[in-house]
Amino acid sequence: MELRNIGRVYCEAGVFIMRIKMILLAIAYVAVSVVLLAIAYQPQSPGAMQKTDRLAGSTFLVERFAG
To answer: Which of 9-13, 17-21, 37-41 bottoms out in mean pLDDT, i.e. has the lowest?
Structure first.
């Protein structure tokens, strides 16, 4: 009689441990996904796209080569 109960306790403990492992795995998956998405979708600053520090509407070329 007691051996059956011991087996049931071990089985329930195994299910509990497996459930905790699956929950931790799901949390780790979500955390890694969030980090990868944050890296992939970093906003690009407007300054990073320009090759010079001049504004796009600058009249530098007109003034420089006006004569």
So the answer is: 9-13
CB 54 within 8 A of CB 60: yes
* Segment of 8-17, 20-29, 54-63 carrying the highest mean pLDDT: 20-29
What are the sequence ranges of the domains in the chain?
2-64
The structure tokens 């690009």 sit at 44
List phi, psi (to 5°) of 21: -60, -40
Backbone angles phi, psi at 65, to 5 degrees: -105, 20
**DSSP state letters, the chain:** -HHHHHHHHHHHHHHHHHHHHHHHHHHHHHHHHHHHHHHHTPPPPHHHH-SSSS-TT--HHHHHT--
Q: Do 19 and 11 contact (CB within 8 A), yes or no?
A: no
